[in-house]
Amino acid sequence: MTLERGEPFVSEYTIDADPFGPEPELFTVKVLRRTEDLWSVTRFGDNYWWNGTEWDHRPYDGMKESMKDWQARHRWPLEEALEQGKIAVKHIYVNGLTYDDYVKICEERSCG
Q: Which residues of the chain have pLDDT under 70?
């Protein structure tokens, strides 16, 4: 897809583990356009890694890894980024708990 100057375009998608469940904002990732053809999966400044299990901070000056190498592992075409986002919400931990843990606790306590 070629972007034209002045034309509206989608630049962000939000993926929630369950928008109607307990604490949905805690278990949300963003899929953000980074270049014309590549997207990243992010959460609070961390980026999801292509290995499908880890979150990673962007490199800073003085790190051994180059930005180009880092971006190669953290950028995908849109369809793949959306799929990675769906996987990524399963790898979010809040206070040591996954979304499924939160749901189970909420069911046991009859909350929300």
A: 1, 3, 19, 21-23, 50-54, 57-65, 111-112
Tokens of 98: 């996954």
Residue 71 three-state SS: helix
**Cα separation of 38 and 74, whole Å?**
9
In whole angstroms, give the CA distance from residue 79 to residue 38.
10
Name, in order, each residue with C-beta under 8 angstroms of 24's C-beta and a sequence gap of 6 or more.
Answer: 16, 17, 18
- The residues spanned by each domain of the chain are 12-109
Closest CA to 23 of 92, 87, 76: 92
